[in-house]
Amino acid sequence: MKWKPEEIFWNVLLTVFAILCFPVNPLVLTGILDTCYNQIAYISGWVTWGFGMALILTPIVVFPRRGGVKKGKTFVHTTRLVDSGVYGLVRHPQYLGGILALFVATLLWYPHWLFGLLGTMGTITIYMSTKKEEEYLVEKFGSSYEAYMKRVPGMNILAGIIRII
Question: Which domains does the chain have, with CATH numbers?
Answer without folding.
Answer: 37-164 (1.20.120.1630)
